[in-house]
């Protein structure tokens, strides 16, 4: 069987996007890492939020081997993934006004904490309102989004703004509107989305920058180890005990 031409084209597209965000977003990634390091050093808490497939990149930095133990998922039931029925419910909830405010008010997030909000389009009510309300509460907001949507689509929030308009720091994933990298004669719709690959890479790069900043300040980053290596469970138990007041996924 010969190699797939389209599979190779997808890898080329994804690699090209990764190279772009590495080169063009380096200063923003460093700024986001510094903000996270500032919060960790000051005794604050870290949260990540994403709805639908954007939640995948948020989950990727929570309770993750090699990741900061302090990153918590800001979860909204029905919006985290396709495990709800119908799966379209998550998309509908992203357009509901008032939902983000209710979630933030009942969450442990408080002034001085960091909230990373991931939304590819950044146009729906939920991520925009989440950013607005978080900043009003005194949180520092890092947005991970595709700025192309703000330039080429209309906002669905009453303010007319996008996620990028209400963040302290913005990381642009460079994903084109529609999130599909490939086309082919005979296939009606474009296909092969790369947003998960690129957004997850941005998140991990940001966390690496945070670890680098912490070490530069003489602070040991509270990292988790894999539970599948010898001593991993014991290591993680010590970290979680030391930082238990800032870890909420165990409660």
Automatic annotation (TrEMBL):
Q: List each copy of the SIS domain by range.
A: 36-221
A Pfam short name: SIS_2
Coiled-coil-forming residues are none
Q: Where is the signal peptide?
A: none
Q: Where are the transmembrane segments?
A: none
- Which SUPFAM superfamilies does this UniProt record tie to the protein? SIS domain (SSF53697)
PANTHER family tied to this protein: PHOSPHOHEPTOSE ISOMERASE (PTHR30390:SF7), SEDOHEPTULOSE 7-PHOSPHATE ISOMERASE / DNAA INITIATOR-ASSOCIATING FACTOR FOR REPLICATION INITIATION (PTHR30390)
The similarity annotation says:
Belongs to the UPF0309 family.
- Tell me the protein's name: UPF0309 protein ACFQ2K_26345
């Amino acid at each position: 069987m010969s190699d797939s031409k389209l599979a190779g084209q997808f890898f080329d597209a994804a690699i090209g996007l990764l190279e772009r965000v590495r080169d063009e977003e380096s200063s923003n990634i460093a700024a986001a890492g510094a903000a996270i390091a500032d919060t960790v050093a000051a005794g604050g808490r870290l949260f990540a939020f994403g709805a639908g497939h954007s939640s995948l990149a948020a989950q990727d930095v929570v309770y993750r081997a090699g990741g900061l133990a302090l990153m918590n998922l800001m979860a909204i039931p029905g919006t985290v993934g396709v495990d709800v029925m119908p799966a379209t419910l998550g998309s509908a909830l992203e357009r509901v006004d008032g939902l983000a405010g209710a979630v933030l008010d009942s969450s442990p997030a408080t002034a001085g904490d960091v909230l990373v909000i991931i939304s590819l389009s950044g146009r729906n009510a939920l991520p925009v309102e989440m950013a607005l309300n978080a900043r009003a509460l005194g949180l520092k907001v890092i947005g991970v989004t595709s700025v192309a949507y703000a330039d080429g689509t209309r906002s669905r929030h009453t303010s007319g703004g996008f996620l990028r308009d209400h963040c302290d720091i913005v990381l642009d994933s460079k994903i084109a509107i529609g999130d599909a990298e490939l086309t082919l004669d005979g296939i009606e719709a474009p296909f092969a989305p790369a947003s998960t690959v690129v957004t997850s890479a941005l998140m991990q790069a940001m966390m690496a920058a945070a670890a680098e900043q912490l070490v530069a300040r003489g602070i040991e980053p509270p990292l988790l180890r894999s539970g599948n290596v010898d001593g991993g469970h014991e290591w993680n138990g010590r970290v979680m005990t030391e930082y238990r007041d800032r870890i909420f996924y165990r409660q």
